[in-house]
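FW: tagging you since you asked about this chain on Friday. Here's the raw sequence from the shared folder, copied in full. Didn't touch anything.
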Amino acid sequence: MKKVKLCLLFFLCSIFCLGQEKMPIRLFYKSSDINTPKQDTLNIKWVRPTFFGRSIKVKLKNKTKITFKADTIWGYQNEEGRIYRQWWGGFMKVCQCDSLCIYMDTPKKKSTIHDAYYLSKGVDGAIFPLSWRYLKKEFEDNDCFLQGMKKKTKWNCYYLEFDKKNNSYKIIEIFNDCLSDVPYDDDHN
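HL: got it, structure written out here
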């Protein structure tokens, strides 16, 4: 019985100690940096926006602080590998990026219960709230997408239904299905 307990204790310790290697935090200066495997040369401890959001503070592990203008940083990758995009002086978690990108903003105030979700056209597009009002405004030229949203989502369902089979959000699948139906426009890449 002692051997079993000892083996179980050793097994649990090895899981918790060996399997928890964290990634180094990386800064992204532009969206294309996400796909480059190079590591940031800075040894970063944390990344935060300043109080008024005009700049981004980066604290290094050697306790040095560096301040960047907010428009010079696209985003960063944290220790768990999650990617955050900088927008208007704050950071939003990137949920999925394809032809559309979905972002999540976790509330800082305890009075707000739910996370807020946002959407952008492409990786560098302007971010707007994920609501029917903004979808109609932003995609007024894409009737296929708007009709698909009306047909394939119900009025009482949220737009963020996740399709586990395709590993994608339903809204992105609807948009991708309609891409071939929209004429190419040089102003909207």
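FW: Residues 1-18, 183-189 have pLDDT under 50 and may be disordered.
HL: agreed, and DSSP finds four helices and twelve strands in the chain.
FW: great, closing this out.
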